[in-house]
Every structure is written in structure tokens, then in C-alpha cells.
Amino acid sequence: MTVPAIPAGYHSVTPYLFVSGASEAIAFYIEAFGAEEVMRLPTADGLIMHAEIRIGDSHIMVADAMQEAGVDSPDTLGGVSSSLMLYVDDVDAVYQRAINAGATELRAIEDQFWGDRMGTVVDPFGHQWSIATHIENVDDDEVQRRFTAMMDAMSGSD
Which domain of life is it from (predicted)? Predict the structure, then answer.
């Protein structure tokens, strides 16, 4: 029997989040984003060596940061170098649920030129989440036109 290269239910790319307080982060993701905990491998001292959650059709791996192993979290790094994009049916409701669960607003929800209604929050563990609902199909030429118009408006050119 041949084993598939990508496990059933996974995609080619799976985010892996390192946090200070993985158990609390998993609880936040369940409350804020409706995540489902798939599995958890705790160490003897209660840290999470590896856990997996599922939001919608996507898996996210989560573990406690372990500096001695060279694995840092946003709070130990002083910020992030990446963010997560979360598509949902109702951006306004999920964004508000994340705020109510303890996230901090980074960017308010707005309709974007590329066809999404989107806002960005920072979770209590330092990770940025852009939450969006796709509201308009915009072809590449129109995206470029809208982007150029926005950049011109920002620079004050006509």
C-alpha cells in the first residue's frame, strides 16, 4: 500500500506557531477562531512539545517556545516576521470574537482593493492574524489599476 506524501486533511504548507503558553494559545484559538484541537503531546513538565489544531479546512501546529532548543516566540523575539491569513464566512463576527477573546486590533476591518473585506489582530501570544471574507472577484489588471491609484493617492500625485 502506498502512503500519500501529504497526510489526509493537510495542505502542502502548514503553519507552525511557537508561543509562550501553548495550552493557553490553543484555548484562545478555540474561542476566537472556532479552532478544533486535533492532538497534543505534552512534556512531563506540562509544556506542549507538539499540538495540532484545525481551523476550517487547515491544520496549524502549535508548540511552546523552547529557547534552549533555538525555538523562540514573538515575545522573546520582540515581534513577528510573518502573519497568518484566515478566510472566514463573516469577517466582522470573527474579528469581534477575536477581540472579545483578548486579541488586540492592529488594523480595523476595511474593504480592500483586491476584493477582500479584511482586518488584522494580534493574538495574546504575539502572532498577527489577518481575517478576511472575499467579497469581490477582481482580475489582475484591475488589482494593478487599483493598487496604482492607491499608491498615487498616498504620494499625492494625480
Answer: Bacteria
